[in-house]
Amino acid sequence: VQLQASGGGLVQAGDSLRLSCTASGGTFGRNAMAWFRQAPGKWREFVAYISGGIGLDDYYRMSVKGRFTISRDDAKSTMYLQMNNLRPEDTAVYYCAARTYSSGSTYDKQYEYWGQGTLVTVSS
User: Fold this and answer.
1) CA distances for 8 relative to 92, 93, 117, angstroms
2) pLDDT one digit per residue (tens) for the chain, 124 residues
3) DSSP assignment, residue 65?
């Protein structure tokens, strides 16, 4: 599975952005997908995941819950992260990831496939 993330950019606090992650190869609909981010000088952290298969399940880190929405369009082999009311502390490189299993995980080591990252910068 190859993943391509896009949609990052420079925005002001309170603005919105939508990130996309397009997959090629593999069976996209069965894979759980996730977004992680890494801010300068910090460890990579979990942002959100969405499960694969039937009965989609999603989960968010507390600081983005209510502001970010993860979704997927299996017909387009694409996952999205709608980010609203962005804050300067959301500034990071955002990575999309996929794992073989349909259940999601908050641990980056449980994802086998990674996109190249897209930079989101939020100015105050």
Assistant:
1) 10, 8, 9
2) 899 999 999 999 999 999 999 999 877 788 999 999 999 999 999 999 999 988 789 999 999 999 999 999 999 999 999 999 999 999 999 999 999 999 999 999 999 999 999 999 999 9
3) B
DSSP state of 28: G
What does the alpha-carbon distance between residue 68 and residue 33 come to, in Å, rounded to a whole number? 15
Going by C-alpha positions, the residue among 101, 93, 100, 98 that lies closest to residue 114 is 98
Rounded to 10 degrees, the C-alpha dihedral 79/85/87/90 comes to -10
- Give the dihedral sign, CA 103/107/113/114: positive
Structure tokens at 59: 């989960």
